[in-house]
Amino acid sequence: MAKGLPKRSEDFSGWYNELVGMADLAENSGVRGCMVIKPYGFAIWEKMQDQLDRMFKETGHQNAYFPLFVPKSLFEAEEKNAEGFAKECAVVTHYRLKTDPEDASKLIVDPNAKLEEELIVRPTSEAIIWNTYKGWIQSYRDLPILINQWANVVRWEMRTRLFLRTAEFLWQEGHTAHATKQEALDETAQMLDVYAAFAENFMAMPVVKGYKTENERFAGADDTYCIEALMQDGKALQAGTSHFLGQNFAKAFDVKFADKDGKQDYVWATSWGVSTRLMGALIMSHSDDYGLVLPPKLAPIQVAIVPIYKGEDQLAQVSEVANEIKDALIAKGLSVKYDDDDKRKPGWKFAEYEVKGVPVRIAIGARDLENGTVEVARRDTMSKETMPREEVVDHVAGLMDEIQCSLLVRNQQFVKENTHEVETWEEFVDVIENKGGFVSAHWDGTGETEQQIKEATKATIRCIPFDAQEVEGKCIFTGNPSKRKVLFAKAY
Amino acid sequence: MAKGLPKRSEDFSGWYNELVGMADLAENSGVRGCMVIKPYGFAIWEKMQDQLDRMFKETGHQNAYFPLFVPKSLFEAEEKNAEGFAKECAVVTHYRLKTDPEDASKLIVDPNAKLEEELIVRPTSEAIIWNTYKGWIQSYRDLPILINQWANVVRWEMRTRLFLRTAEFLWQEGHTAHATKQEALDETAQMLDVYAAFAENFMAMPVVKGYKTENERFAGADDTYCIEALMQDGKALQAGTSHFLGQNFAKAFDVKFADKDGKQDYVWATSWGVSTRLMGALIMSHSDDYGLVLPPKLAPIQVAIVPIYKGEDQLAQVSEVANEIKDALIAKGLSVKYDDDDKRKPGWKFAEYEVKGVPVRIAIGARDLENGTVEVARRDTMSKETMPREEVVDHVAGLMDEIQCSLLVRNQQFVKENTHEVETWEEFVDVIENKGGFVSAHWDGTGETEQQIKEATKATIRCIPFDAQEVEGKCIFTGNPSKRKVLFAKAY
Ligand SMILES: [Zn+2]
Ligand SMILES: [Zn+2]
Asked: What SUPFAM superfamilies is this protein classified in (chains A, B) (predicted)?
C-alpha cells in the first residue's frame, strides 16, 4: 500500500482525493471550485485529447473557436436550455477596475464601467454557436456543418471535487447542423459510438450505451444518448453524452435553410461532449491501493527504467545497458523514462512510478549486469520477473497490448459481476444499499416514479440501454406495467 | 485580383479585414470585441500550436492548466502587474441568474448571488500561477519549474480587430521558476530564440530580436525581450515577448526556496507568450491582392487538385489520374485535397484555393489526359507550368521547400529595403510619414523623449536590437548623447 493513501475498501472517497494529489494529477486552487491540472495530470488529458481529436477528424469534423462569453439576451433565447443552466452561471457585469480611493494599494470594481448587457461565462456553447450558424447557413449546400471546439466552460457548482465536478472544467463540445432529422439522429448515434470506442479501446473502460430519461436529458435536447461506466465502488459515472437537439436551437435563433427545391425549413442540430471528468473515471476504474494504474495507451510514461547502483562506476555500467534498452523501446514507439537522478534512492523511485501508474518498470542492478538479466515489473498485476536482457525489449513492447487488454477484460468482468437483475422493490433496495453496481429493473416510464425512487434510495436511472430487450414486466415501485428494464445506480 | 478584395496599395486596412472574411479565417461575433475563429483559420492556428508545443517540449517544458478566474486579492498582489491590467479587466461579480419577475421569458442577474470577492477573468496568469507555485516550491530540488499553458485570456480592448486585437484571444503563456538569476535570464533568452526560430522557419517571417524600453515593458517585468516583424504596409508588429520577471512575483506571493546550504531566497521567474495575433502577422506578411498566401509548413491544405471535365466519363478518367497523384503526394507526407465536388465550376475552385492561400494547385483536364501532362500553379508567384505527369509528384514535393524558402527570402529582402538609418529629426519624420518601415535612430535613453517622439509622429521604439552596435551619436529629438541606435516604427 502506498504511504498515506487510504485503502479503497475502507474509504473510497478519501482514497480518490489523496490519490489525485499523490500522483500529481491536480489540486484545488485559490479560486473556489476551480482546479489546477498539474503537468502529469495534464499529460494524460493531452493523450485523451489527441486520440479523441483524431477520431473526430476521421469522422469528418473540424475544430473552431467561439467566444467565452454569451450575452444574456442570446443566452436566454432557447428557454429550456437557459432555464437548465441559469442557476449556475458566472456573470460578468463590469469591464474595468480602478484604484481604491481609500487604499491606493487595492483595486475596486469601477462602478462607471458597468456593461450595458451582462455576459454569461459559457456553461455550454449552443447559444453563441447557433447565433453564429445563422450567418453561415442559407441553403442545403451549406450543410452539414460538423464542428468541434476544445474549450473551458464554467458551471457554478456548490459541491466540487477534483475532475468529477469543478466550477471550471475543460471539455470538447461538438455542434453540428443538418438538413434532415435522420442525418442529425445518425450523427448523434455516431458520436456516442466514438465515445464508447474511445472509452473501451483507450481508457480500457467498458460502458453501457443508452438513452437518458426525460428528467435526465440535456436542457434543450429532444433526446440525450449517454455512455455510463461503473466505478470500483459500485457507483456509476456518466462518461459522455450526445444530444439530438431537434430544431429547438434553429427555432430559437431562426436558422432556416432552402432545400434543393427552394423550400425553407429549420435546421436540425446535435451537440456532444466529454470533459476532464473522464480523468476521474479513468482513475476510479483501474487504480488500486498502491496508487494510479494507467492503461498503456494513455500513459505519458509507459516504461520507467531505474538503475540500482553504488558509486559512479556502477552507474556508468548500468546506464550503458539501460540506455540501449531505452533506445530500442523508443524505436518501437514506446515512451520511456530512464531515471538516473542521483538525488533519489531506487526505493523512492519505485514508489513514485507505482503511485503514478507507469505500466512497466524495469530495474537494472549490479547483479543483473553479471547475469545478463533485468527485472521487469507490471503495474497492473504488481508482478515481477527477471529475464535475459536480450528478451526484454520484445517482452516489454508486447506487455503494452497485454496490459491494455487485461485492464479492459478485468473491468468487463467487474461490470458483469456488478450488474444485478432485480424484480421486486425489496430486492432493489437491498442491492442498491448493500451491493451497489448497476441494477436492471422494470420501471413504469413516468418521471414521478423515477423521482420517488431517487428520493427513497438516491439511485437514478442511468439509462435505458440501447440493447434493452422488450420484456413485459411490472414496475418495481408502482407495480404498473413496463415494457423493458432500465439501468439504475447511485452515480457520481 | 480577387473579387471584392480591396488592393493592398489602396486600402491596406480594408484589404486585411476583407481577406480575413473571404479566406474563412475568422469573423466578429455577437459579443463585443470577441471573434469566432472559423475552421479554416483554426486549422492554421492548430498547425502553429503543434509546432510551438513541440518546440516547448523539446526545450524541457510541460503543459498544465490553471484557473480562468483570478480573485481580486490575488490579482492586486503584484502592484505593477495589477496596475497594468486593471483598466481592461472583465469582472465576474455574480454566480446565478433568475427568472425576471416582470417577464417570465427573461433572465436577470440574481442580486442574492453576489460573490463575496470579485473574480477577474485572467488577462494573464502570473498571479494565479505564482500563488500556486508557492505550494510547490520549498527547496532547490523543486526547481526549475518549466510550465506552459495553452489558454484563452481576456483584455477589454476598446478598439478591436480580428486576430490583431480582440477582447478574448487564444495564446500560450510559459511560466518558469528558477533558483538563480542567471538561469532565469537564460530561459528568457532561450524562449525568445524559440519564438524567432518559429517565426522564421515556419511562418517564413523574419524578425528583429531586442529589448523593450522601460515604457514598453510587460507590467511587472524587470526586462522584456521581444521579436518584431514588419508588415507589408511598413508597420511593425510585436510577434512575441519573453519576460524576465526578477523576483517580483516571488516577493508578491512570498515564494522562497532553501538552497543546498539551507539558505532561503526568493525564486526567480520568467514568463513568455505568443497569441492568435500571430495569425494577423502571418496574413499581413505574405498575402496579396488575390487573397491569402500561406507558407507550406502552416498550410492546412498544401496541394489542391482540381479536375476539369465534361460529364461523368471524363470525370472518372481524370479522377483516376488525380487520385494516383494525390496518394503519391500523401505518401510523401503532404496534405492534399482532391476537389471533385460537382456543384462548383473549376473557375470557382481556382479562385477559392487562391483566396485561401493553398500553396500549390494542380489542374488536370481532358487535354492533359491525352498529352500525359498536368498543370501546376504556385500560389506565391502565381506562375503556372505544364509538365509530364510522371514528374509532378517529385516536382510538387520539392516546391514545398522552395516556396517556404522563397517566402522567407522575399520578406528578408523586404525588411532590408524598409529599414532606414536616419541621423536627423527631419529625416526621421520624413521616413516615418512617407516611407514607413523600421527606422534606426539615436535616442537619448529617456522615457520622456520616447513619449514626445511618439506624440509627434505616432512612432514608438519597437526595441533596442540585441545586435545594436555601440556607436556614439546624438539623439534625433533632443541632441543629447546616445550610445546606440534603436529601432522605431509605427506599430500594430
Ligand atoms: Zn511476462
Ligand atoms: Zn518548377
From this structure: C-terminal domain of ProRS, Class II aaRS ABD-related, Class II aaRS and biotin synthetases
